[in-house]
Amino acid sequence: MAALLRSKGVWRIVNGASERPLVSDTVTGAELDKIEKWDLAQEKAASEIGSHLGSDQRSHVEGLEDNPKKM
Q1: What's the DSSP call for residue 22?
Q2: Predicted confidence band of residue 11 (pLDDT cuts 50, 70, 90)
Q3: Where is the composition biased (Basic and acidic residues) (predicted)?
């Protein structure tokens, strides 16, 4: 799974090396773009993990589908 997520460019989200970008008190368009990009990468990671789980393993990640790090 780690190799697959690396190939998709989302492994750093799962292993905790990449955190969601922080924003300033006055959010700029550039900050919003960074957050959107990170959120999409997080969704991609969760989707990849979920799609590779067997039906007997899905119960272990129920309710965590939006958090690939916890998955």
Answers
A1: P
A2: very high
A3: 55-71
Residue range of the domain that includes 46: 1-17+29-50
Please tell me the predicted confidence (pLDDT) of residue 33. 96
Coil, helix or strand at residue 51 = helix
| Within a domain: 41 | yes
Alpha-helical regions (H) of 1-71: 2-7, 11-14, 29-51
pTM above 0.85, yes or no: yes
Tokens standing for residue 11: 């492994």
Find the length of the chain: 71
Cα separation, 70 vs 7, in Å, equals 20
Domain count, the chain: 1
Q: Say which residues have a Cβ less than 8 Å from residue 16's Cβ, sequence separation at least 6.
A: 69
